Each structure stands twice: as structure tokens, then as C-alpha cells.
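[Target chain]
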Amino acid sequence: MISALLLLAGAAPFPISHSPFPVQDTTRGKAVYVKWCAGCHGDGGAGDGAAAAHMLPRPRNFTGAIYKIRTTASGQLPTDVDLMRAIDEGLPGSAMPAWKGRLSDAERRDVVAYIKTFSSFFADTSQHVAALKFSGEPSGATGATALKTGRQFYDSIGCRKCHGDQGRGDGPSAPTLKDDAGFPIFAADLHQSWRFRGGGSAMEIYHRLRTGLDGTPMPSFSDLIDQKFLTDEQLWRLAQYVRSLSPPEPPEVRDVIHAPQIVGPTPVSPDDSTWARGGRYWFPLVGQVVRKGRWFAPAVTGVWVQGVHDGRTLALRVSWDDRTQSPDSAWRPFEQRVLETVAGDDSGPPKAEPWPDQLAVQFPRRLPESPAGMERPYFLMGSETDPVYQWRWTSSPRKSVAGLARGIDRFDTLPGAVAAQASFDHGEWRLVFTRALATPDTANEVQLAAGRAIPVAFFGWDGSSGEHGSRMAVSTWYFLALDRPTPPGVFISPVLAMLVTLGLGLVVVRRAQRRATARAGRQR
């Protein structure tokens, strides 16, 4: 009787014991799904919504009940808590946003119930969905011994085949990877833990190693523990090693790049020791979706930037992760699969070509008249009437140029002015631009003045992902500040003031002591 009433009320037609949540309403869950989820996942939950063709990775196909991020064993259904966590927190590195705070608790619970109706597997009463029992993290996570052990197992169980020797997703098998649906899939860049789908902590990485990512080439390693090829602690060491490849905290996006003034010449090599002593600034890049051909799946997701100057010349270092030094014939089939998978605009998919990797740094032609002014040209490479000044670099042929961009389709090269050196190592580009702060061409080339906020933006292209022209990654405007050296007086004045104050204090104390001594003598 109770079950019949629940079904009539629209409750989820699954055993209540399978869900830790209060009674869920699939009717209300459907309304939430249609409004917020169907555009990507499709009306029937097959991952074929109107937006799906523009995404890599593709939205989840709920009909097969194959889920990457779970706490259950490989091949098993996820728990309701697993589904709720994905909805609450989203899946970093994909188009799936976090819905906690956007939808109510009841709406999120109801949509979990409705999602399960897309697959009959959830209605199978013989299924016993249960999370694995995970051990706690052993101590010594960042110690040399733990990381050495982790690195040994990274090599011995074949992680480097896909993820590469240094973990940037550039292993020899990386160009061949695809998911169970046949879509191309990138091996995770292990230097960007903030983009890990299931979370970037050592514990969450350990969970993924135990469960695997169903539907992808990433297997579960629980069986290696069962076969005594490795111990649970050693798998933890592997997780700790993987975690050590990324910064301790996700990079904070700041508005201003501070370029200090240094003594001696500015570095021209991207591997100069000067860069190891300076701060780095992270700037995210997103796909260019304003102009055709649009690009919704950029391979360059961000750049690290550093700058220094010597009062005459600026050196700007830009580094970013890139799985291949393009053009690379080994990645050409993968490039073609990406182009066939991701819709860039209304035209058909283009043919894979040997495109180079590229990077551009953008400035206004002139700084605002007022130092406090924030006037900037159109961020997407300016316009015909208000062009922007850019430095452009390409990997093949290896060269750099400066010029004026008058929109995406027009770039007028200017003579000389900028030099660049680049190096590529294990999936990372490091590039240094150098240019005089002041140039003779004040009409077209921005004059880089110390003490001013200089607008700057960045653009990136990965040739082996088919990126060229308007198919690129873009940033918004940020600022570059050429810091002035701190005048010696700033440090000396406080010290002098302190010494003077101390001296006066001692004089006052001594005078007081003398008066007290004199009074005591008169009293005797």
C-alpha cells in the first residue's frame, strides 16, 4: 500500500534502501532536468542535447549507467551520494557546473531520482550498490621516501604510457585514446589537479585509482592489490606522488602581473635562473565563441606569466602545458577525431592540417591618457578603427613578430621591436618575449612605462588539436605593472626615526633617574 502511494505521488521507483535521501519525487525531478540539464544531456538522457556537439568531453549518457566518478567498484553503479556530489560540486575540466547553491536541496535530490529512470539497471533489485571501504592516508605524504615510492609505481604500472614521463598527458599512447563511445579523450594533465573531475586531493586521487574511471581507458588498480602486485599503502604513495606534481593550492587568478626591476640585464632564455626566483601569475583561457569559427574545447586552458625589467628592457615569460610540439604527425589522426567530434560553427568539420602551436600577447597601442583610466580596446583583437598591439609567436617556423591586430582576420606586421626564445620539454612550452620599454614608433607600439597599469591579454593555439585562426583560447584583459625599485629612504627613514625615538627615550629615562637620585640625597 505504501509503495503504491509513493508511486502515485511520483516517488522514485527504486528500493528506498538504495537511497540515503528522503523520498524523492521524479515528477519534480523531471521538471528540473528539462529546464537545466536536457540542453546538454538530451531529453532522453543519452548525452545528445543541443549543446553536446560543442563539448569535449561529451555530456554523460545516462542510459548506459556508466559513470566515471564513483566510490563503488569498477563496473558497479554509483551511489546516490556519488550522483549528488557530482551535481553539487560539478566536474572540473568539463562543462558540468556545480549546482549547489543554484538549485535547492529538494531539487537536486529529485533530479538524482529522475536521472536514474533513464537506465533499467537502477531498478534492478538484485543490485547491491555500496561504496568501497577506503583506507586512511598514511603519513609522510610529501616526504622524499613516499614520493620516490610513488614515482616507482607510476613507472611500473604504466601510468607514463598515457600521462607521460612528467605527467602532462603526453605519453606515447595519448594520441590513441578514446572513450567507450568512440570519442577522443585526453589523458589528464597531472600538473593541474584543480581540473581533476573527481577532486584534486591525494585522497580523491587514491579513490580514482581504486575505482577507475568507467567508460574511459583509465582502469581500476584494486585488482593489483588483490593480486599482491602492490600494497594499499603503495597505491596511496602513487596518489601522493601524482598530487605532488601540482601546486599545493589551486592557482589564484590575480588582476596584476608585477614585474620587478632587477640589477643587470634582463634574461632572454626561458630557462634562465632569474625566473626561479620570481613570482608566477596564472591566467585562465577559454574557447573563442564570439566569432565563427567558434571553438568550445580549447586545449590551452591557461598560462603562467612572469615579468622583469631593468629600466630599459622588459622580459615577459609565458609558460603553458601542451601535450605535443606541433605540428606532430603522430597526433594527426587524433586531431582529425577532435575536429570531427567538436562542432566549431555551422559549417562541416575541417580537415586535420599540420598547424603550429601559437601564442599572442596583446596590449593597447597607447596607454590611457589618465593613469587611473581603464579605457581598453575590444578584447578580441581590437577592431578596424581601434586596433591592438600584439606580440605573436609560432612554433613552426619558430619565430616572433610584433604588429597591429584589427580584428581576428587582419594583422599588420611592424618591423623589429620584439624578440623571443622558446623551449619545449615534456609537454610544457616556455617562451620569453623581450622588448625595449620605449621605442621610436610611439604611434603604433605601446610605450611601457614603469609605475603604470598596462592592459595585457593572452591568446593560445594548440596546432595538434586543430586550433588556428579563430579556433583558439582567449583571456580577458588583465594588467602588467613594471615596478620601480624601492628608494633607500623608504627603508632608512623608519630606522632613523626608531633610533631617534629610542635615543630621546633614553635621555628622558636618565634625566628621571638623576632627579630621583637627587631627591633621595636631599631626604637623607
Notes: DSSP finds twelve helices and 14 strands in the chain.
